[in-house]
Each structure stands twice: as C-alpha cells, then as structure tokens.
Amino acid sequence: MDNKQLKSTREKSKFLDRTNRKELIVGTVIATFIATTPYLFTLWEGAPDEKVWDTFFGTYTSNYYGSFQILVWTLLGKVIPLLLLIIWMFTCRHWWYHALIVPIAMYIYQVMEILNDEITFAETNQILYLLPVMAIVIPSIYLIRAQMFNKLIDADKTLEELEEEFKIKPKSIFKKVGDYF
User: Fold this and answer.
1) 37, 84 Cβ separation under 8 angstroms
2) Torsion angle, CA of 101/103/109/110, rounded to 10 degrees?
3) Which of 74, 67, 21, 15 is nearest to 43 (CA)?
4) Higher confidence at residue 71 or residue 2?
C-alpha cells in the first residue's frame, strides 16, 4: 500500500512539474515581450525611408504616408499597444477584464484604417464602429457588477471577498480564447 501511494505521489508531482514548467515558459515569453516593447517600437528606424520599396515579397508604393518608414512608425504606434492590451485581457483575473474589449476593438479599427492608404482623415466616425462592441460589453459588465452587489447584500461578505470569488482562475491562453467562441 505504501508503494502505491509513493508511486501516485510521484506521478502527481511529474504532472505538476510539467504544468508549472509550461506556465513558466509562457510567462517568461510574455514578460520578455512586454519588456522588449520599447525596443520593438524603434523597429521603424530600420525601415527604408523611400516612397517605393522593392522586396522579394513585392513592391510597396506609399501613396498616403510618403515613405515606408512613416507607415511602419504609425503602425507600430497602434500595434504595440494593441498587443499589450490583448496580453492584459488574457492574463487578467479580475471580473472587469471584458471592458478591455472596447479599447482592443478601437485599436483594431485604427490599424485597419492605417493599412487603408486611401483614407484622407483617419479615425473619423470611429465611435459608430465601436457602438456594437460597446452595446455588448457595457451591459455585460453592468450585469456582473449587479450580481456582485446582490451577493454582497444577501451575504456577509466584503467587496474584496466577492472580487476574489469572481476572479478568473488561471487557464491556458488557448482555453481563454476558447471561452469567447
């Protein structure tokens, strides 16, 4: 009997070591990416300052921005905060993390406008495109908050205990993405 318990304990510890190792690797990659974002933003300096740029992928002609370097600078100014918001959303354990969908949608819209070179005024009527997203996110956040306060009134719990109850338990990034679809 003692041998079976020892074997079971070893198997559990191997499983925990594998999951902890995987979380450690993912956490290290995320932390490294966040730490290198100031350097990633300076990538625009390596882009050619030319109106027409020939590569083996094809030829890029900058009609709106004047040079490829300005396009890269503009894109990095939107893509890096977008990626940081996405990381924050998938790693946030608070009940309000759905609110991050609104600025994520805003940045996605801005990136799409940047990539469309023929737009003369960027970021016009942006709120109209965000209204459907906000119409879903804001009421859902309100409902979660209302549930928290209903539980607070019905039970003898503090607000911190309720926030702890509504916190999302750690999951893998793929499971969090799967929760949205």
Assistant:
1) yes
2) -160
3) 74
4) 71
- The predicted model scores a pTM of 0.64
According to DSSP, the residues that pair with 54 across neighbouring strands are 59
Residues 160/147, Cβ–Cβ less than 8 Å: no
Cα 24 from Cα 170, distance rounded (Å)? 13
Binned at pLDDT 50, 70 and 90, residue 135 comes out as confident
Q: Return the structure tokens found at 12.
A: 């559990």
Taken in order 80, 85, 88, 89, the sign of the CA dihedral is: negative
End-to-end alpha carbon distance in the chain: 46
DSSP characters over 130-158: HHHHHHHHHHHHHHHHHHHHHHHHHS---
Backbone angles phi, psi at 61, to 5 degrees: -115, 120
Among 46-55, 90-99, 106-115, whose mean pLDDT is lowest? 90-99
Write down the pLDDT at residue 81. Answer: 95
